[in-house]
Every structure is written in structure tokens, then in C-alpha cells.
Amino acid sequence: MTDQTTTTGGSRTGLAGSARPGQAPSPRDLAARAPGREGAGGTNPRRPDAEPPSPQPVEMTGAQALVAALERLGVDVVFGIPGGAILPAYDPLFDSATVRHILVRHEQGAGHAAAGYAQVTGRPGVCIATSGPGATNLVTPLADAYMDSVPVVAITGQVPSSLIGTDGFQEADIAGITLPITKHNFLVTRAEDIARTVAEAFHVASTGRPGPVLVDIAKDALQAKTQFRWPVPFDLPGYHPVTRPHSRQIREAARMMMAASRPVLYVGGGVIKAEACPELLALAELTGMPVVTTLMARGAFPSSHSQNLGMPGMHGKVAAVGALQKADLLVALGARFDDRVTGRLDSFAPEAVVIHADIDPAEISKNRHAEVPIVGDCREVITELIAAVEAEHEAGHKTDVSAWWSQLDAWRATYPLGYDDPDDGSLSPQYVIERIGKLAGPDAVYVAGVGQHQMWAAQFIDHDRPRHWLNSGGLGTMGYAVPAAMGAKVGEPESEVWAIDGDGCFQMTNQELATCALEGIPIKVAVINNGNLGMVRQWQTLFYNQRYSHTDLDRAAGGESLGTRIPDFVKLAEAYGCAGLRCETAADVDTVIRQAADIKDRPVVIDFIVHRDAMVWPMVAAGTSNDDIKVARDMAPDWDVTE
Fold first, then answer.
1. Buried (b) or exposed (e) across 42-66, using 16+ Cβ within 10 A?
2. CA 90 distance to own-chain centroid
3. pLDDT (tens digit per residue) in 336-392
4. Structure confidence by residue, pLDDT tens digits, 155-198
5. Residues with catalytic function
6. C-alpha span between 328 and 441 (Å, rounded)
7. CB contact at 8 A, 497 and 489
8. CA–CA dist 379, 216 (Å, integer)
9. What pTM did the predictor assign?
10. DSSP labels for 82-137?
């Protein structure tokens, strides 16, 4: 039996360089943090070569070494549930003065909470579970974090090393199970390897293209004695992320940008992860180019900025979708050309050449060939692009995009986002979400579940700040919102945090309301309650002849509707120690939102009873071309409109 098993999921390469404000520290800084911190976010990290080694190693158990390593890595909170195999770690954790443990009600909640914490702070979120079912309950949040490149460190207990491979009680090969959905994972069977492995896990999770890392520790390794030293050397041969772009590629990109007549800056979530939003703003204003921000990049470029065309893709704005389709140059920054943006790939942006910058070389030309591939950290790429474009300007080369903007403005004016109020007087879900955004404002953190409410929250809330919009973009995980909002509130306690959830999503993880109530985490939850699985119902309406097979959440076995009171979310909230409110009319929306905002001492759940059949528009049907976008049912835009 070797001391550890390592595996990488794909080519999730790393981000090096010095730490940036609000971002995870640079490669080896994490392994040298002192245990004391000035606040919840930690102190300035110190490099190992700047910190003298401990004069004398300290004898302790592997479990104590685990907690000591977490303290020195600057961890201030972990989300978890104890169990047999991980129990040795919980004993020294009980004595830690700097690491807060939040006892969740389900391990999935721990994983999503860690992701929510990571997304708002830029630092790795940490979750803990025991072996077997405890560890396997982390699979969904790990897959979710992997798809959205979120730095999460999951620590799991494993059966004693002598039982590994024997089908022992609560044994599961969690390292093998999570191999495809983690950036890296480890199996540790020796106490002396625990501190180093944990430090390496934080390094891998938070550098390059961020992602989840799992550390599975055998119970006997936690119980055995070891000599604890800090800092610890790393042993990660072959892990050398490229962060600085090639200068020749940068110069060629700048030349092409100045030669284009219909360029678009296609911005993905990698810009936020690289803390490159100020640089993006500078590049956009320097070039005058239109900007589209994907679902994961909402807030990377202010929604209120005149150059922001909005979100592209399946439920994107017509102007954003049209800009990509008609462009002659796409400058993709930290984006991955996923199917929800491109539509049918062979019809996507047919006249465009592509400049693609990404920290992960595996993403470049994976789905769409890039004429100019640039491997590097988005912040460094954009910084160098700004300098190269300025050099082009000084040489007299400057693109004229005035005609392009005339066309884009015509699309924007003709096909703005909008919605109709229901004819029956019921509450419009779009109106509810729009008013939450207006009243809570741009400083609030918005966390969405998955489905119609997610798209409406992306569309009708102005996202002007990075790390203030969280959602499950790649995996589309129902049940994400409540625990992720919990983690976000822990990471940003001064911010108002709104979970915007559907009644279907909410019923998957609402037990974490008990955690929030007991731990003093006063999130706000807006349940958009239409009595059904809304996005699935929309597809059944449009593509399955209105055959609503098993999507009505209020339908009894006999077929009759029992209304939107099973469960009664107001009573459920109160049972969990939260405030419960209900709103059924547009006239009461603002009053109820303000009432929720005024409650500071406990979580609040608002049950918004909304129209049953509201739909998300615009829409590009799955598998079709973006050219076939519909602004409403059976209504297509006129791409030739000029005013």
C-alpha cells in the first residue's frame, strides 16, 4: 500500500503568481500561513522561504496535524458532519480557536456551502465528511464545483488502511469514485503525510484553473503519532501552470482586434476567477468593443455599462446572441464555448475568427478552433493585451466599430428583455425577481437554484459586481441555492444574501435552514412557487404537446391539484426556526421584500405564489442554431432591423 494515490481530472492547470486582494494566495503562500488571523478572511500570506522552519518538530496525532495544517493555511470555517472514520479529526477540531466548524444536516449541504464560501471570497472552501455514504454524499457538490471551476477542498475519513479493499463497514473508494470530477485527489495512509498533503490540496485547488480537490485519510493515519513540522515541502512533480501568455500571440491578437469590423469580447467566468474585472473594463473601454458575459460571468463587467450587451446563449438577450452570430472576431476570455452558449456548434459564429485565452490549455480549441490560442492567466493576458492595443493605436491602427454599434443598438432597442403580466391577475415571477434586485441592490449577493428562476435572476437583476452572483452553471444542480447561500453569508457576513430558489429545488436541501438558524446565518430565501418543475414544464409545453408527465408538484395520485401548500413553506420555515412570509399579489411584493430585509436575527423564507405557466424568453431550443432564437413563442427576431 502506497502512502497516497493521486489523480488529476482532465487538464485543470494552475494559476501562479502573488496573492491578489480577495483571491486565494499564490502557489506556496497557502502552505505558510500563520495560525493567527486579523479577521475572518486571514492575514497576508507568507512564502515558505520567508518563514523559518519550526525549530523543533512537535509530536502529535495525524488528526492534530490535520487541524494544525488547516489553521496554518488560514482556514476560518469548515462545513461538515462527523462519523466513525473521521471522528479522530473532530476531537482536536473541538479545541481549535481559529477554525469554526458548522454542523450541516446533509453532506451535500456541506459541499455546496463550501462552494458558496469559495465563490464569494476567492479562497478555498472546506467540507468534511466521514467514509462511505458520508463521502459519497459529496459527489454531487464536487461534480458541481468541478464543472464551474470552484476551489473546494473536501476532507473525508476512510476506513483503516488494513480494511481498504475488503468491503469493510462504510468503505467506499471515494478517490476512485471522484476521479473524473476532481481536479486532483489523494488517499493518505500515513500520519506523516497528512500536513503535506493538505497543503498540496489547497495549492492545487486554488491555483491555475481552480477546482475541487479531495483528501481521503485512513482512520489509522489520523490516530497514529507523527512529528509535525511547518512549513512543509511540496511534492507535485509536473504541476507547473502557465500563467504568462506568449508575447507573440498577444501581439497577433491585438493586430486582429484592430483589423476587425465586428468584434465581440466574449467573457466567461475565468475572468472573475483571475480577479481580472478591472482590466476587462479597461480593455473594453480602450477598444470600444461590445461585451457579452456568460451565465458564470455575470458581474465581471457591469450590467449597467453601455457596452454590455448582456448574457448570450439559450436564454440570452437577442443582441448578445446576434452579436456572436454576426461577429467577424470573437475574443474569448476565460470562456469555454459550451453548448448553452453556442447552440448547434457547426452554425455558431460562422464568419468569426477566434482569439481564445484560457488558463487551461485543454479548453482551447476543444469545441471551436482558435486561430490565436493564448494560454495564460486572464489577468495577465488582458493586461498585456491592453499594452499591445495601445501600441497598435500609437502606430495608427484603430478599429472603427461605429457601424457595428449601430446594428447592435438596433437589436438592443427592438428586442429588449421583457415579460407580460399574467392575464388572470396572478403574480409574475419575473416581477418578483426584478423587485428583489432593485430593493436589495448591487451590493447584495444573489444565489440561484436551477431552472426558470435561475434564468430570470440572471436576466432581470443588474449584476454590477463580481462574486455577487452565484449559481450552478455547468452541472445544473437542483438544491444548490440554500446551502450555497449559507456558505456565501459565512464568507461575506456583512452582505445581504438572497437565495432565489424554485419550489422544486428548495425541497431538496431546505434542511440547511436549521443549520442557518442555529449557527446565526441570516440568509433570505425567495421561493418562486409555481407548483411545478417550471423549466421541465416549459419544455413539455413547447416540445411535448403539453403532456405534463410528472412535473406538477401539487398533484395528488388521483390527478387533482392540492394547491401550493404541500408543504406549507411558511410553516416549514417557522418549524426550522426561521421567519416565514408569503406573498401572492404584486401590490404586496415590495412590502414583503422590505419586511424580510428588516429581519436580521434569523433566516427568512418568502413563499411567492406565482403564475403557473410563466416562461423564460428569449430561447434557443436545445440542438438548434442560435440563428433560430425566439423572442417569444413562434416569434423570431428580424436580424435585418436597422432602427
1. beebbebeebeeeeeeeebbbbbbb
2. 28
3. 999 999 999 999 999 999 999 999 999 999 999 999 999 999 999 999 999 999 999
4. 999 999 999 999 999 999 999 999 999 999 999 999 999 999 99
5. 107, 169-170, 219, 535
6. 36
7. yes
8. 33
9. 0.92
10. --TTTHHHHHHHTT-SS-EEEE-SSHHHHHHHHHHHHHHHSSPEEEEE-STHHHHT
